Amino acid sequence: MIGTLNESVLLCAGGKYQPSQIMAKLYFYYSAMNAGKTTRLLQSSFNYKERGMDTLLYTFKFDNRFGDAKVASRIGISAKAFTFDNELDVFDDVSMRLQKRVACVLFDEAQFLTKKQVLDLCRIVDELNIPVLTYGLRTDFLGEPFEGSQYLLLLADELIEVKTICRCGRKAIMNAKFDANKKIIRTGEQIDIGGNEKYVALCRKHYFEGNTGEDL
């Protein structure tokens, strides 16, 4: 398969990539933290390239925990990427990079996209007939939607939940932020880049109880 779901239809019966014969879609893979979204993105990109197809990878400009302009997974795999902030004209930037054959555009940390940028992704799919795969969190640590996630949930052709679990064994759907004493933080700015040192994925029950799972 090319990606993780039906984007594999990009290979026609004869095994030849023929963009004019496929209908591109906008995909949103969403989850709580540490569910393996970035690993899926990198696997999808690799599968395209293994078949001689180029991809464009983007990640959030201010998430440089693993180096600048890099999509990196917790399991140790990574790839170079272009970056976006909320000022980037996504449609123009992608269009400018289409000098070579591009089979797919992939966005990591898609929760940080703006409404306008999500609309740009829709244009890439609808006007350029190029599939776009986006990966991101559904909600922030306050249980509120990110702008990018909100509009991807509204506008994407395909919504795919990437599941992970709370320490109690239930499905984790919430992202909790905690302090040095493992107490859940309920206030603060929405964007605060970090990993396991300040965030944990919890089920709804333990999120609202304020239990980070240390005692489970």
Mass-distribution shape? elongated
Structural class: alpha/beta
| Weakly predicted, low-confidence segments | 1-19
The total count of strands amounts to 10
The proportion of residues forming helix, as a percent range, comes to: 10-25%
Number of helices: 5
What integer is the average pLDDT?
85
Strand content: 15-25%
**How are helices and strands ordered from N to C?**
EHEEEEHEHEHEEEH
Name the CATH superfamily assignment. Answer: P-loop containing nucleotide triphosphate hydrolases
Q: What is the alpha-carbon Rg in Å?
A: 18 Å
Which CATH architecture? 3-Layer(aba) Sandwich
Main beta-sheet strand count, sense and barrel state: 6 strands, parallel
Total tally of structural domains: 1
Strand order of the largest sheet: 5-2-6-7-1-8
In brief, what are we looking at here?
The chain is an alpha/beta fold and 216 residues long. The protein has five helices and ten strands.
Structural summary, described in words:
This protein has five helices and ten strands, in the order βαββββαβαβαβββα. The protein is α/β, with parallel strands linked by helices and 216 residues long. The chain has one domain: Rossmann fold, CATH 3.40.50.300. It has a six-stranded parallel beta sheet with strand order 5-2-6-7-1-8, sandwiched between helices. It has a two-stranded antiparallel sheet with strand order 3-4. Strands 9-10 form a two-stranded antiparallel sheet. Strand 6, helix 3 and strand 7 form a beta-alpha-beta unit. It is elongated. The termini are far apart.
